[in-house]
């Protein structure tokens, strides 16, 4: 994970600053709002700006961003920054056959119900907890679930941003 210092981020060209943000959340409007808020006094201010720009995320923005997330339990292929991040976020998942099979079935059920990949902030969560969340969210109505997906996406973006910037 290459980190950028806050000073470098503030001093970079808009294009370079955008490159730091894109693997966190590939939404142009979100990236541009944060880039245009530079210079920031501290990382907390960048995070606050990122949170504001992601509240709310439009449904079309969420759908576009989801395309960059592999299924939970499936290893992201390739060596892009996003794939590397995704693999590290999912590194805590269990290799227990039963849990893995249940997760695979849950993903399929979720995709049949909501017609998109199940997205959850995986960092810091066990497979059992992810399964629990998946099961709970399966009974959400569409509107509630759309809001939950946007919130998970925002959490992943903020975690990635905090990992990408160093003081
Ligand atoms: N389908 C997913 O939830 N994917 C992911 N969650 C994360 O926290 N990182 C991912 O790639």
UniProtKB/TrEMBL annotation:
Domain named Oxo-4-hydroxy-4-carboxy-5-ureidoimidazoline decarboxylase: which ranges? 10-162
UniProt GO BP: purine nucleobase metabolic process; urate catabolic process
Single GO molecular function: 2-oxo-4-hydroxy-4-carboxy-5-ureidoimidazoline decarboxylase activity
Q: Keywords assigned by UniProt? A: Decarboxylase, Lyase, Purine metabolism
Domain of life of the native organism: Bacteria
Q: Write down the chemical reaction(s) this protein catalyses.
A: 5-hydroxy-2-oxo-4-ureido-2,5-dihydro-1H-imidazole-5-carboxylate + H(+) = (S)-allantoin + CO2
Identify the EC number(s). 4.1.1.97
Determine if Lyase is one of this entry's keywords.
yes
A Pfam family that the UniProt record links to this protein: OHCU_decarbox
Pathway assigned in UniProt: Purine metabolism; urate degradation; (S)-allantoin from urate: step 3/3
InterPro entries registered for this protein in UniProt: OHCU_decarboxylase (IPR018020), OHCU_decarboxylase-2 (IPR017595), OHCU_decarboxylase_sf (IPR036778)
Q: Which PANTHER family match?
A: 2-OXO-4-HYDROXY-4-CARBOXY-5-UREIDOIMIDAZOLINE DECARBOXYLASE-RELATED
**Know the name of this protein?**
2-oxo-4-hydroxy-4-carboxy-5-ureidoimidazoline decarboxylase
Q: Give the source species.
A: Kineosphaera limosa NBRC 100340
């Amino acid at each position: 994970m290459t980190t950028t210092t806050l000073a470098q981020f503030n001093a970079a060209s808009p294009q370079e600053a955008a490159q730091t943000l894109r693997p966190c959340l590939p939404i142009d409007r979100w990236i541009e709002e944060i880039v245009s808020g530079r210079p920031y006094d501290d990382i907390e201010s960048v995070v606050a700006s990122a949170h504001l720009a992601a509240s709310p995320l439009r449904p079309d923005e969420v759908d576009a961003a989801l395309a960059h997330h592999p299924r939970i339990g499936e290893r992201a292929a390739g060596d892009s920054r996003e794939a590397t991040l995704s693999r590290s976020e999912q590194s805590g998942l269990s290799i227990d056959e039963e849990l893995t099979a249940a997760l695979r079935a849950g993903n399929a059920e979720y995709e049949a119900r909501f017609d998109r990949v199940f997205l959850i902030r995986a960092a810091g969560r066990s497979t059992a907890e992810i399964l629990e969340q998946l099961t709970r969210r399966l009974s959400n109505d569409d509107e509630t679930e759309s809001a939950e997906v946007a919130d998970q996406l925002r959490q992943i973006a903020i975690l990635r941003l905090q990992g990408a910037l160093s003081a």
